[in-house]
Amino acid sequence: MCGVAGLLGVDGSARLMIEALAHRGPNGVRVEDPAPGCSLGHARLSIIDLEGGWQPLHAAGSTVIGNGEIYNYLELARDHGLEGALATGSDFEPLLHLYGREGQAAFDRLRGMYALCLLGADGRTWLARDPFGIKPLYLLEQDQGLAFASEPRAFIAAGLLAAELDLEAARELAALNYTLGERTIFKGVRRLAPGEVVEVRDGRLAQPRRRPALASTRAAARGGEMELVRKLDTVLEDSVQVHQRADVPYGLFLSGGVDSSAIATVMARLNERPVTAFTCGFDAPGARDERAQAERVARALDLEWHETLFDEADFWRILPQVAWALDDPTADYAILPTYKLAQAARDTLTVVLTGEGGDELFGGYGRYRRARRPAWLGGRAAEPQTPDSQVLQRWRDAAAAPGALNGLQRAQWGDVATWLPNDLLLKLDRCLMAHGLEGRTPFLDREVAAFAMALPDRYKVRGRHGKWLLRRWLQHACPAADPWGRKKGFTVPVEAWIAPRAADIARRVGTIAAVRDTFGAEAVRAAFSGGRGWPLLFFAVWSLIHLEGAVPHDALEQAAGTI
């Protein structure tokens, strides 16, 4: 995992952009100008081929810089007879040789997480992002050409962009805790969409092509219950196996829930030595602390288990740090323990596997069960509950699924298109990259997705249980995970920590320009008095850092007073 930045069709250097992303690549920064009007920068976190995998990478007359990992690089080299042609062990080099043979069709062969720029020997230039949007890529289109980067802060640091709030995106953040689609909270900056492959011609984007993460039509999986359990076992083992490919230490984040327990179970099977796992717990009233369940799983699987605590002091210390890290913001309070876990793991691990995607692919959310019920039994669409009708309509547009899907599949498609890339995966990317860690998501794999999407509904949702088949598999593979236990959900007691200071914070936050313009003074007062102050406090600290240039500690003091 790394940081990338570049200028296409623009005279200049990517040096300032990539230096602003040095936290993403603690092993070093390289900048090359391979052609007139083209400058490429790469900040490297060394994972595979520690000596030879530096980028920009050149082979078969083409050049690539990429953020992420192409997990099937060994299979690509073997199946296409490339071994003798490879000069490095880099996971990105086979792509360059395949592009020389197949052109843009080579992108369809990739299995992994990536955001990349490829300059072909044929004179064509491409930008591409993986179908789930696990890795980010941001674009800034200007009259003189195009800039791209792994984080929007690169454009600001290089003087290419003055940070200005997009009010429509800010209102999406207020309503959903994340922003939708390609728009970002910075005017003029957009995301490359998940699965998008687009050619750049003379500094301009041509017509993009998108590859959806979920198949729109597919025959239902065949076989009885135990046959499907065996197939799931094969699919999960294959995905975890390739997601473990690394020349550096790897482990996982273990919550004690079904998804992370499933990943831990397969990792324990595949590794001869105990797998390192980290769990975050809360010592606070009202917090749901799953350390005891995580410890039971860890003992059953003989994991090398580490626990870390998150308390009120951590909240006030980490809030400004995570607001800095999330230059593309999400107000999901799960950013806080994720950031603390990354802090705890960084001295031991370089690669962390996580359970993101299990709920979306295997039907884990309660809203999926509601979406399957008829209206007269309380069924309703699996969409966000927000009073903002314009934001809701934009969500419906972003979540629109092909007509061939059934109701449950449409709900899954909607989540995979909206909050998965723009909330869950964004959180994982920024919180881990701030500490020089690579996060990998074995559920969000093309083979796992193809298997899950083809499952009949009854193997996803049955009775009060979502993820039915995954639970059934875990019942056999790791009974200590208690797969049929009631899902507890996930809470961080942020409002309890804010409450004693709520009136003063509301007064301070209400004076900050971005908050005032987005919410209005009355909404600010109502939120803090009603125990809903966290999103506004986060947004206030975020806006002071990224729009007004405050350092993180000073931003917190301005928004919340002396802690």
Care to describe what's here?
This protein is an alpha+beta fold. The protein has 23 helices and 18 strands. The strands form 3 sheets. Strands 4, 5, 6, 7, 11, 12 and 13 form a 7-stranded antiparallel β-sheet that branches. Strands 2-3-1-9-8-10 form a 6-stranded antiparallel β-sheet. Strands 16-15-14-17-18 form a 5-stranded parallel β-sheet, sandwiched between helices. A hairpin with a 2-residue loop joins strand 8 and strand 9. The model has no long low-confidence stretch (mean pLDDT 94).
- Structural domain tally: 3
The second-level CATH architecture of the largest domain is 3-Layer(aba) Sandwich
Strand element count: 18
Taking the alpha carbons of the first and last residues, their distance comes to 35 Å
User: What's the CATH first level of the largest domain?
Assistant: Alpha Beta
Count of separate DSSP helical elements? 23
Largest sheet: 7 strands, antiparallel
CATH fold-level name of the largest domain: Rossmann fold
Strand content: 15-25%
Low-confidence stretches: none
* Structural shape: globular
CATH superfamily of the largest domain: HUPs
Q: What's the alpha carbon Rg, rounded to whole Å?
A: 23 Å
| Mean pLDDT across every amino acid position | 94
Helix content: 25-40%
